[in-house]
Design goal:
The chain contains 14 helices and 19 strands. It has 406 residues and is α/β, with parallel strands linked by helices. It catalyses: N-[(R)-4-phosphopantothenoyl]-L-cysteine + H(+) = (R)-4'-phosphopantetheine + CO2; (R)-4'-phosphopantothenate + L-cysteine + CTP = N-[(R)-4-phosphopantothenoyl]-L-cysteine + CMP + diphosphate + H(+).
């Protein structure tokens, strides 16, 4: 069980922190809420105490026998400030210690994650941007805000990411020192990464299609972690069951043909292309104009043709900038690790990509699961093997991509 401090600053988005608290608590974490005095104008202490099971204080003079302004930060495994207002970011950047939360920020020796939320003008103001840069320079982790509806009729960057998104980022950081180091370094900053995710669908008739069991979880995790590490992210989403992460531009596709068109169009500006999508290998030769009816014969004959090999087309096009890294995925049914490597090496040679992420999906493994087990290979070596939740796997894949240029 991890000990998490949830700091809540005084912004309208404080109500979303209630949902974040519930999600973190139900995931088995021990969460202590430390609001600012202004935060209690939006959500009262009684709510935080009822949801967390811990007393709530805003000042340094409550429960002084426990020295909370030092102890809370010292004992935490992670501090999350959500929402982090412009005022809170400014006070944290200047090292202020004028309430319990800012004292905790000064005493914490664990990773600290700020999740900003404010109006667009405040987020884009040079003072706020300088404060964010200062905090990042000191090792703090700062998510970029989402782009969307704000208070009133305003819309733009500054919206608090959804609680499920923040929870996923928290899960990707806890206990993963390499991931924390990569986020601190922002080792994908200045790079444009394009990730495909989900499963394509090939229409049989107006109501039926050929598809697969991919949920898109791994691709979504790749998009979320890339944004956290500083990249500009484009997610090319086929059918996915996961919510789209904040911080990513999304291009929706349906069929493998649409996937190929989107990926080839994005390739010229991409520093990395990651094909986590489960693309159909075959498509109907003809799509019926109307719904296919039973005719009493007891059978239905379909004639299928091969779809575009999108990964091979990307590798062969040469349309990307110098140093572009292309990553493929191979979902194989293998007898053992040696068989998996044999299949993977053959596929890597055919596709011509820089890295290939191998999954053994025998027995229905991986698809729809929160966890994954992968072997990443390059043309001349096994780069690494990893098991864990898909956020951790996403970080290992980005580690491998960054490693090509190191």
């Amino acid at each position: 069980m991890s000990r998490i401090v949830l700091g809540v600053a005084g912004g309208i988005a404080a109500y979303k922190a209630c949902e974040l608290l519930r999600r973190l608590s139900e995931s088995g974490h021990d969460v202590t809420v430390v609001p600012t005095p202004n935060a209690l104008e939006f959500v009262g202490a009684t709510t935080w105490e009822a949801l967390s099971g811990h007393p709530v204080r805003t000042g340094v003079f409550g429960g002084v026998e426990d020295v909370p302004h030092v102890r809370i930060g010292q004992q935490a495994d992670l501090v999350v400030v959500a929402p982090a207002t412009a005022d809170l970011l400014a006070r944290a950047a200047s090292g202020r210690a004028d309430d319990l939360l800012t004292n905790v920020l000064l005493t914490a020796r664990c990773p600290v994650l700020f999740v900003p939320a404010m109006h667009t003008e405040m987020w884009l103001h040079p003072a706020t941007q300088a404060n964010v840069a200062t905090l990042r320079g000191r090792g703090a982790l700062v998510m970029d805000p989402a782009d969307g509806r704000l208070t009133g009729a305003d819309s733009g960057p500054g919206r608090l990411p959804e609680p499920h998104d923040i929870q996923a980022v928290v899960a990707s950081l806890l206990g993963d020192e390499d991931a924390v180091a990569a986020v601190r370094a922002r080792d994908l900053a200045g790079r444009h990464v394009v990730i495909s995710a989900g499963g394509t669908r090939e229409q049989l008739d107006p109501v039926r299609f050929l598809g697969n069991a991919s949920s898109g979880r791994q691709g979504v995790a790749l998009a979320r972690t890339a944004a956290l590490r500083g990249a500009r992210v484009t997610l090319v989403a086929a059918h996915i069951t996961e919510p789209v992460p904040s911080g990513a531009d999304v291009v929706r596709v349906g069929s493998t043909a649409e996937l190929a068109e989107a990926m080839l169009a994005l390739q010229p500006t991409a520093d990395a292309l990651v094909m986590a999508v489960a693309a159909a290998d075959f498509t109907p030769e003809r799509v019926a104009d109307g719904k296919i009816k039973k005719d009493g014969s007891g059978t239905l004959e379909l004639r299928l043709t091969e779809t575009t090999d999108v990964l091979a087309a990307l590798s062969a096009s040469g349309a990307g900038p110098a140093g572009q890294v292309i990553v493929g995925f191979a979902a194989e049914t293998a007898d053992d690790e040696a068989h998996l490597l044999e299949l993977g090496r053959a596929k890597l040679a055919r596709k011509g990509c820089d890295l290939l992420v191998l999954n053994n999906v025998s027995g229905g493994a991986v698809f729809g699961s929160p966890d994954n087990s992968v072997t990443i290979i390059a043309p001349d070596q096994v780069v690494l093997t990893a098991s864990g939740d898909k956020a951790a796997i996403a970080h290992r894949i980005w580690d491998a991509v960054v490693g090509i240029h190191s």
